[in-house]
Each structure stands twice: as C-alpha cells, then as structure tokens.
C-alpha cells in the first residue's frame, strides 16, 4: 500500500512540473496583436516545452515576437491535447519573428543550441516524448548550411558527435492555443514555470548577456 501511495505521489509531483500538466484556458488573449513589419523574417525552432523556448527568444535583441505552436508532423490541425499523445509527429515549436538588420539567423541558431541540451533524444528534462524533440527548421539552403555548420562545430568541440537535433525542411506551422502564448510571463507562479521555465531562462541570460534586450537584463 505504501509503495502504491509513493507512486501516486511521485506521479502527481511530476505532473505539477510538466509542460503537459497545465490546461487552464483562462487569460487567453495577448495584450496586443503583433503585426509583422515588411522587414520581418521568421525562423522556427523546437527544443522542449514551448513555454520555455518562447521566453528565451523574446529576450534576444532583434526578436520582435515569438509565438508558440506545432510543426514537424503530418497531422492536420494539431491541438495541445493531441500532440501530448506523442502520436501526431509534431513537436512543440516556436516561430521567431525577427529583424535581420538587428539579429542574424546564425545568431538565432546560436541561441537555439545554447539554450537547451541538443544531445537529448526526444525530450528536455523534465519533458520527454517526440513532441519535445530538438528540431532546427530551415527554409533555404543557406539556413540549412548555417545549422549544419553549427552542428559540425559543436559536435567536434563540445558534444563529441552526440547531437540529436533534427535538421528539417520547414513546411507548416500551426499556432498553439491562445492560453499558451506568453505563458511564462502570464503565469509566474505556476509550478512548472517556477521550477523549470524561469531557471532555464536565467541560465540562458547568464550565458549570453551580450544578446539580451535591455529590458531582459
């Protein structure tokens, strides 16, 4: 009986600090509707829970907006509940809207690899499953080369050929439900945010202070 109780308690504790353990749909609207400018370009990255990834990219100079969503699979119109099964093929992905005059795609790739563990297959602690896998999406051959060059260098100098990141041609991005947008900022006291998202963001800030907006310091 004690063993069963321990398992239940452990499972509940894991749920509290899981990206998939929160489905409160209140506070659904962003404060303002983002409108891309003529100069704006978009890059797409998946590296675990999109609550964390969105907050990281939004702290970077030149990034105008980051939007949480789903990409990398073949299922039409994926939802948070559906991708949580790990059967849709999609990963939690962030669309990064940026000004190429202020930040390059190459720098965004540096942010991507520098803000998660790219050697972990299908997950970033404490979230595991194909929906949390590491993917760097490219739209052009030049973007693909930038990503592959970064992987080659990191494998040689840091990760000893252990990088598990997928390099995938971008096809379609599905915006996630509104309650996921700016989740970390809107839910500062949520258990996962305090235990995982904020520490991950702070670790990134400490590592790359030169890339941060003044408001992010």
Short description:
This protein has helices at 2-16, 50-58, 80-83, 105-114, 141-159, 183-186, 191-207; strands at residues 41-47, 63-71, 91-98, 123-124, 127-128, 134-138, 166-169, 174-175.
Task: Explain what you see.
By secondary structure, this protein is an alpha+beta fold. It has a single domain, classed as 2-Layer Sandwich (Peptide Methionine Sulfoxide Reductase, Chain A). Helices cover 36% and strands 18% of the residues. It is built from 7 helices and 8 strands. The strands form 2 sheets. It has a 6-stranded mixed sheet with strand order 7-6-1-3-2-8, with helices on one face. Strands 4-5 form a two-stranded antiparallel ribbon. A hairpin with a 2-residue loop joins strand 4 (123-124) and strand 5. The model is unreliable at 1-16 and 26-31 (pLDDT under 50).
What is the overall silhouette? globular
Can you tell me the residue ranges where pLDDT is under 50 for at least 5 consecutive residues? 1-16, 26-31
Order of helices and strands: HEHEHEHEEEHEEHH
CATH architecture: 2-Layer Sandwich
Residue share in β-strands: 15-25%
CATH superfamily: Peptide methionine sulphoxide reductase MsrA
CATH topology-level name? Peptide Methionine Sulfoxide Reductase, Chain A
What is the radius of gyration computed over CA atoms, rounded to a whole number of angstroms? 17 Å
| Alpha-beta classification | alpha+beta
Largest sheet: spatial strand order: 7-6-1-3-2-8
Summarize the biggest pleated sheet.
6 strands, mixed
Total domain units = 1
Cα end-to-end separation: 49 Å
Please provide the count of β strands.
8
- Helical content (DSSP H or I, runs of 4+): 25-40%
Number of helices: 7
CATH class reads: Alpha Beta
**Averaging pLDDT over every residue, what do you get?**
89
What is the subunit organization of this protein? Answer: single chain
Catalytic activity: [thioredoxin]-disulfide + L-methionine + H2O = L-methionine (S)-S-oxide + [thioredoxin]-dithiol; L-methionyl-[protein] + [thioredoxin]-disulfide + H2O = L-methionyl-(S)-S-oxide-[protein] + [thioredoxin]-dithiol
EC number: 1.8.4.11
Domain Peptide methionine sulphoxide reductase MsrA: 43-192
InterPro entries: Met_Sox_Rdtase_MsrA_dom (IPR002569), Met_Sox_Rdtase_MsrA_sf (IPR036509)
């Amino acid at each position: 009986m004690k063993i069963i109780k321990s398992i239940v308690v452990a499972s509940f504790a894991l749920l509290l600090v899981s990206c998939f353990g929160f489905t409160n749909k209140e506070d659904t609207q962003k404060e303002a509707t983002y409108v891309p400018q003529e100069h704006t370009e978009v890059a797409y990255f998946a590296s675990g829970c999109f609550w964390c990834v969105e907050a990281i990219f939004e702290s970077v100079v030149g990034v105008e907006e980051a939007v949480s969503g789903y990409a990398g699979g073949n299922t039409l119109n994926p939802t948070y509940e559906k991708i949580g099964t790990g059967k849709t093929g999609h990963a939690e992905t962030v669309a990064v809207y940026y000004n190429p005059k202020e930040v390059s795609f190459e720098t965004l790739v540096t942010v991507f690899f520098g803000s998660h563990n790219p050697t972990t297959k299908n997950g970033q602690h404490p979230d595991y499953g194909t929906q949390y896998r590491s993917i760097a999406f490219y739209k052009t051959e030049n973007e693909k080369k930038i990503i592959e060059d970064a992987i080659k260098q990191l494998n040689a100098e840091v990760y000893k050929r252990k990088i598990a990141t997928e390099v995938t041609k971008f096809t379609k991005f599905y915006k996630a439900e509104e309650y996921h947008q700016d989740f970390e900022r809107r839910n500062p006291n949520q258990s996962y945010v305090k235990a995982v998202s904020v520490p991950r963001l702070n670790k990134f800030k400490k590592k790359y202070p030169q890339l941060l907006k003044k408001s992010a310091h």
